[in-house]
Amino acid sequence: MRPSSSLDRRGFLLRSAFVGCSLAASPLLTPISLAAGPWDARLVVIILRGGMDSLDVVQPYGAPEYATLRAGLKAGPANGAADLDGFFALHPRLAPLMPLWRTGDLGFVHAVSTPYRDKRSHFDGQDLLEAGTDSLSGVRDGWLNRMLTQLPGVEARTAFAIGQGEMKLLTGAAPVADWTPDADLAISPQALRLADLVMQDDPAFHAALSEAMMLSEDGGMSGGRGQPHVKIAEFAAAQLRGDTRVASFSINGWDTHNRQERALGAALDRLSETILTLHAGLGAPVWQKTAIVAMTEFGRTVRVNGTGGTDHGTGGAMLLAGGAIRGGRVFGDWPGLAEADLYDGRDLMPTGDVRAPAAWIMRGLTGLDTAGLQSVVFPGLDMGGDPGFLL
Questions:
Q1: In this structure, what CATH number is given to the domain that contains residue 332?
Q2: Taking the model in full, what pTM does it have?
Q3: From which domain of life does this come (predicted)?
Q4: What 8-state DSSP symbol labels residue 190?
């Protein structure tokens, strides 16, 4: 359970957003800027490129069908996964994050997806995830940039797009700063994007490209400082301790068509190290008013394929972390894994729109109203009722 101070923290966040917006609008205070933005909370968005297997990361071991469907993978508490709530268990490679789960600074949302369906293309799936719309027709900007256009006092350093690849969700009219760490792989983002597009219809080649990227960035090993994902997290934390309010970057390596146990484990190491680097780098005062959202373009099939991996699916999961998060729980409407409950007879059925949690978190952090979030930031989204993601 959360300590009794959680209500005070929630009140502080709400008051920070309210007071900041009020000051920005006041004719008696001209001009006013609260650390380059009229809100004090921080938002970090991480794109998990490649389609993270939510059923292996947040394992529904309590579902009677799970053991049979996942017979080819070692899963559940009996194989080292950490029990979360008696139904879900966390993959062993995310065990370093369990202290955050116990303090309520880590949570998950299961069975969510973008509106993207059926073709299961990384190229289109990632574009739609970052566009935040129902379709890609005529869309030239990203949802995180559109959020910034709805807030006063935004400057270039208010938001950072960090990393070696293009972050489309921060593309748009609002000013955004960019930073790229040293890269071991001598390939431009444009060339990598082209290779991704060419290989997307060949699962074996695409998985090989994903693994090559992972090995190049990690020097062939998981763990260790000086790697790009650690440098990115350190840089993001340093900026967020100052004027920056929004940071976004991506983590590759989630395309697990074969040898999933090895590939997914390495990717989860990087995700765990990233979250813990942010936690340490932000420091307690800033961490307490930070929300981290990690999203992926789609989930993966419920059944294991013949090469010890999983193929492109539909329903997935998102990770939430930070002191502003009401964690220690798995959110979402669980659909079940019975044959009749699956999407197209093969995938986890999505019961929620992945954009809705992001919208509710943005509303709580910045004070934006639901009308603007549903019409401008995420056109066509129905946010539904407040699930209580934030304190």
A1: 3.40.720
A2: 0.83
A3: Bacteria
A4: H
